[in-house]
Amino acid sequence: NENLVVLGIETSCDDTAAAVVNSNGEILSQVISSQAELLARYGGVAPKMAEEAHALVIDQVVQEALDKANLTEKDLTAVAVTIGPGLSLCLRVGVQKARKVAGSHNLPLVGVHHMEAHTLVARLVERELQFPFMALLVSGGHNLLILARDLGHYIQLGTTVDDAIGEAYDKTAKWLGLDLRRSGGPAVEELAREGDAKSVKFKVPMKQHKDCNFSYAGLKTQVRLAIEAKRINAEISLASASDEERQARADIAASFQRVAVLHLEEKCERAIEWALNIEPSINHLVVSGGVASNKYVRARLDEVVKRKGLKLVCPPPSLCTDNGVMIAWTGIEHFRLGRFDPPPPANEPEDVV
Length: 353
Ligand code: KG4
Ligand code: ZN
What we know:
Layout: E1 5-10, E2 15-22, E3 27-34, H1 36-42, H2 47-68, E4 78-84, H3 88-105, E5 109-113, H4 114-125, E6 133-138, E7 143-150, E8 153-158, H5 165-175, H6 184-192, H7 217-229, H8 243-278, E9 284-288, H9 295-307, E10 311-313, H10 317-320, H11 325-336
Parallel strand pairs: 1-4, 4-5, 6-9, 9-10
Antiparallel strand pairs: 1-2, 2-3, 6-7, 7-8
Bound molecules: 5'-O-[(R)-(carboxyoxy)(hydroxy)phosphoryl]adenosine (KG4) and zinc ion.
5'-O-[(R)-(carboxyoxy)(hydroxy)phosphoryl]adenosine binds at residues 13, 139-141, 166, 169-170, 183-186, 189, 289-291, 293-294, 321-322.
């Protein structure tokens, strides 16, 4: 029952993140360096550019995580790092750094699946959360409904057939001319509060499909057409739009959000019914991933979960969006069960990874 202290490194997408967590579930430090501003300037993730941005800050981010925890590399029990899914050029920056730290101090390595980490961080937040439980993972690239039967044993109940909900939020933000220096989701959520959610009639996706899959490409198109029909010019920022134009944008934001989340509600409700047939002892639905930091999403799903007699577990926003804590914690969960790799060789050349 010794106390494990694990460094977690995450570089799968556009944030470079590191954190130190111990096996009591204490977060000793958490550091994130975001490329959001860079990406806004160039209009999206270009893998080569993202790789260079990670490489530029990775040493500093890891050092800062150790400093804030008042630790040095020698004090660690193991190093955990995201190995996928994600942009391979970006993942490699994190993996190389993890191997370097682990190799220099003879530390075991734990390779972590990014989506498993979004799921398991809920067990750090809510210590009562036991397997089996359900999870809805909603981010920029993923839209998953999972039945988590045990550590490392997951059944996928549903996924997206095209885009994820976060992608739909991001495009809606872009087409509405919102400030993209932070990600699109929060900007749409904020503007939606000023809008009438029933004013634009969007169709709920996949009504006719009796499964637990998602689709957001069609809703994206509906939003784009509505924006064109209202002659909204994304070149004009929200701040310089007229009152009337601001209201039109807010109405679209609110109407989009209502339908995007209705789609989540419907599929979650069905998935809970399916899952309870397989595992009647399920008590919780975890909602995690970037979109789970949205207050409207949380409130609506809380209603669904209550109706079904379950409890909602939703990590705080800083642990819903990509972070190093979830990687370190998932590393601890696997390490405890002996699921880790031996230390890599010291002074390994970087190009072998
Ligand atoms: O999990 P995450 O940080 O990265 C991925 O693994 O994709 O999720 C990022 C996504 C982006 O699409 C972002 O717009 C969305 O999560 N997001 C939100 C909110 N905060 C982040 N979407 C809606 N409302 C929010 N408050
Ligand atoms: Zn993520």
